[in-house]
Amino acid sequence: MGSGQVTRPVVLVVVVASVLLALWRSGVVAPRFALGEQPSVHHGGSPPSQTITIRNDGWTDMTLLAVGRDGPGLRLVGTDVALPYRLAAGRSVSIELRYEVTDCGLVPTDAWPVPVVADAAAGPYRRYFLLPPEEIGSGWPFDWPGPVPWQRAISWGSCHSMYDLTPGRGGVTGRPL
Q: Least crowded by CB within 10 Å, which of 64, 107, 142, 166?
């Protein structure tokens, strides 16, 4: 076997691998998206909401099919962006997820990821994003100091009345009534 016969298969493997890598990075095979700027909670409004920004890191446009979900104690009632939504390559979109608090006691106290579903060549492609905890101010009634998971933060406006905030009767420890 001559050196030309060995070189051709190696070159072919390198070319095929390069094409596959380019297709993957382009967003054609699987959409490439990430969280954009810092998410924000709006717990004083009605309904409470969480705003997230999705950034298309692919080389091609992508279509967002769904963002957010129902969960324990929460019902997703809508978004401020009509879905499906076409997101151009290199662009971002901020989406407000509006929730109804259905049961204060069931809202998760641990990190609860937000799903984002985009259209892909092989069908819907789903990613889950863990959002950073939110600082909601000194009125938060639980024993832990500092930021709380985003879903607890949005439930604060609806759920704070279920805690005894009277000094001397549980105070800001937030013992349920």
A: 166
Question: For residues 35 and 53, what is the distance between their CA atoms, to the nearest angstrom?
Answer: 6
Q: Are 97 and 68 in contact (CB under 8 A)?
A: yes
3-state secondary structure the chain: CCHHHHHHHHHHHHHHHHHHHHHHHHCCCCCCEEECCCCEEECCCCCCEEEEEEEECCCCCEEEEEECCCECCEEEEEECCCCCEEECCCCEEEEEEEEEECCHHHCCCCCCCEEEEECCCCCCEEEEECCCCECCCCCCCCCCCCCECHHHHHHHHHHHHHECCCCCCCHHHCCEC
Determine how many CB atoms are found less than 10 A away from the CB of residue 96. 18
Write the pLDDT tens digit of every residue in 120-176: 877 899 999 999 888 766 555 554 456 788 998 888 878 866 554 444 444 344 444
Pairwise CA distance, residues 49 & 42, whole Å: 5
**Size (the chain), residues:** 177
Amino acid identity of 113? P
| Cβ(100)–Cβ(49) below 8 Å | no
How many CA atoms are closer than 13 Å to the CA of 153, on its beta-carbon side? 22
Residue with tokens 């390069």: 18
